[in-house]
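Human: Can I borrow your eye for a moment on a structure tokenisation matter? Separate attempts, laid side by side, tell us more than any discussion would. Could you pick a protein and write out its sequence and tokenised fold? No explanation is needed for now; the record alone will do.

Assistant:
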Amino acid sequence: MSTGTGTSLRVSRVIKASPEEVFAAWTQPEHLKRWSCPEGMEVGDAQVDLTVGGRYLIRMESPQGKVHTAVGVYREIERPSRLVYTWDWEEESIGETIVTVEFNDLDGSTEVVLTHELFPNAEAKVGHEEGWTSCLGRLEKLLA
């Protein structure tokens, strides 16, 4: 499910795995490389310093060789229930945006609720909504 207004979006998905497993998939480079990019792309590099103030990097590559590198800083880490971090693109900055991910325990499954805020325009929001929806589909398949 996805919703969004103005300069923010919200997408959610129920994943058949525990919050601990989903949190690990979201924060460990070896897992991020397997799902954290839209269908048709690959993660060439993922780096994570999972501390408040720590940086992350996710380098996505298209089959044509185009590179998109997401970068940011962790602002809140509440294992395994919540992450808040900044988000921007290294190659074509959209300005600092904020991603909040909640991992809600559903007794054996996890509802992932992602809110991405402060987009500079509707076009950026729509593109990210498509990207996050695709990523969550890949995460769901990975943890099924």
